[in-house]
């Protein structure tokens, strides 16, 4: 439980921080696609005898930067993402079958395994979380401009392409990290829902980030406690709690 709370808190912080930029840039759909790509990467990691997290990092970073470079033009973004998602799911199933792992391995990839996370996984998550947060804070201003005012950022930011690639890499790393607690199928929940709710309450970007982190931590901590008491997967409670927070924010906004 101590390891679960440590990793869960780090994941909530990273997801809340990056999630605000993801939602502001209207790229929530890409986080969902990366979750499916992450499934293929984790399965590939098992097939190669690596940690699933390593496979997810390779697949999500390569895919995020490739999709970003191919462009999110209106005319081809939907078909491109659909094709990538289909290939990713197919590869994930194939690698799982070839690795000859049992059903528990597949369940861990799809829905997370926070209570059985190893010491090695904890170190990996801590290192990746620190990298994402440090880089995000150092590049905060250009990332904020890129995410919240993209139309002017194209002309005012000198290295807009590199900033976009950096953003996609940070997003891919966040997806890979978050899979440790909610699994590859539900990664987008922690990245998008707390941030979406926070953006309806916060008035400044820092307020949005703070609220997104708070909502993420509340959801993760509550889910861990409820999962421990009821023996129901953590991801189920995270989905219900974060969705509940988001729906409350919708009601508050309407009022």
Structural write-up:
By secondary structure, the protein is an all-alpha fold. It has one domain: ABC transporter involved in vitamin B12 uptake, BtuC. It contains twelve helices and no strands. The protein is globular and about 50 Å long. The N and C termini lie far apart (39 Å). This is Cation abc superfamily atp binding cassette transporter, membrane protein. The chain crosses the membrane at residues 6-24, 44-68, 80-100, 121-140, 160-193, 205-228, 234-251. Belongs to the ABC-3 integral membrane protein family. It comes from Weissella minor.
Which helices and strands occur, and which strands form pairs?
Layout: H1 2-24, H2 28-48, H3 52-70, H4 77-99, H5 103-111, H6 119-138, H7 140-148, H8 150-156, H9 160-182, H10 187-201, H11 205-230, H12 234-254
Helix pairs in contact: 1-6, 1-7, 1-9, 1-10, 1-11, 2-3, 2-4, 2-9, 2-10, 3-9, 6-9, 7-8, 9-10, 10-11, 10-12, 11-12
Keywords:
255 residues; mainly alpha; ABC transporter involved in vitamin B12 uptake, BtuC; 12 helices
Summarize the structure.
Helix content is 85%, strand content 0%. It has helices at residues 2-24, 28-48, 52-70, 77-99, 103-111, 119-138, 140-148, 150-156, 160-182, 187-201, 205-230, 234-254. The chain crosses the membrane at residues 6-24, 44-68, 80-100, 121-140, 160-193, 205-228, 234-251.
Number of strands: 0
Could you name the CATH class?
A: Mainly Alpha
**How would you name the CATH homologous superfamily?**
ABC transporter involved in vitamin B12 uptake, BtuC
Judged by helices, strands and strand pairing, the structural class is mainly alpha
Low-confidence stretches: none
Strand/helix succession: HHHHHHHHHHHH
- Mean pLDDT rating: 82
Task: Tell me the fraction of residues in β-strands, as a range.
Answer: under 5%
| CATH architecture tag | Orthogonal Bundle
Q: Alpha-carbon distance between the termini?
A: 39 Å
Number of helices: 12
Query: What is the name of the CATH topology?
Result: ABC transporter involved in vitamin B12 uptake, BtuC
Helix content: over 70%
Q: Shape, please?
A: globular
Number of domains: 1
Main β-sheet description: none
Radius of gyration: 17 Å
Membrane topology: Multi-pass membrane protein
Protein name: Cation abc superfamily atp binding cassette transporter, membrane protein
Main location: membrane
Organism: Weissella minor
